[in-house]
Amino acid sequence: MMKKVLLATAAAALATSAQAADLPRRAAPPPVFTPVPVFTWTGFYAGLESAYTFTDNQRITTVGLNPVTAGNVAAGRRPASITASQDGFANIGGTAGYNYQFTPGSGIVVGIANSIDWTDITKNRFILGAPLAGGVLPNPSAYRQSLDWLGTLTGRVGYAFDRVLVYGTGGLAYGNVFHDVNFYTPGGALQFAGRYDDFKTGYAYGGGIEFALPTDSFLNTFAVGRYLGIKYDAITIKAEYIHYDLGTQNVVVNSVATGAPSYLSRFKTEGNIVRAGFNYKFGGF
């Protein structure tokens, strides 16, 4: 009898184990896949910059408007042609624009940018003309040329290598220029004077490189905007070179005594600007 009870118990245990083996196992859930966001340059941006401006061939030419003054130029008493190179650091500037990237990650980027820099560069030239016969002292001539501020409104075309953007740019240049001419007698008295101070336009072209800082970069801790509550997608740093040409400007130099036009001086405003700065990038749509 006991033997039958043990056999029955063993059979029941085997049946229970077989049923338990058929039950589904509790496996750990698969890990949730979170895609890494792909960076895009699409969006509006705005920021600050500083710049270095330099010129290499700003020419000033002068002609006489009557036989006497034309003779003075021909004899070298007034300079027929001089150059006035300028250079200096811009105090501060700003930029704003919009980019569109066709394929996020890496791909072609097109955009538009408007930048304005307070250049405040000035060049003065003082020239002594050829002396007169009989030992008479030469005539002094003074020129002043300055570019108060420079703006560029340009289109941009480039290629993005993820967070690095290399681009070319070209379009409109504009700014306020100042030209001043003063011709003196051998004794130092002002004899002829002319001036131009106004807004001018021209063209600009160049290129640059821009880098978007990773969100975990320690450099983001220096972003003032984050402490001011500005909501932005990324901070970018840039360096670019621009060549600008605001064309030529004629300045009539009048006689101080009679007011009659006596000379005509033509100024050329052309140069280069190297910009470095940062931008806040905002989401595009």
TrEMBL record:
Residues forming coiled coils: none
Keyword Signal: yes
Keyword Signal: yes
Keyword set, alphabetical order: Signal
Signal peptide region: 1-20
Family matches, as PANTHER family: BLL7405 PROTEIN
Similarity comment text for this entry: Belongs to the Omp25/RopB family.
Name under which the protein is recorded: Outer membrane immunogenic protein
The species this protein was found in: Methylobacterium aerolatum
Record lineage: Bacteria, Pseudomonadati, Pseudomonadota, Alphaproteobacteria, Hyphomicrobiales
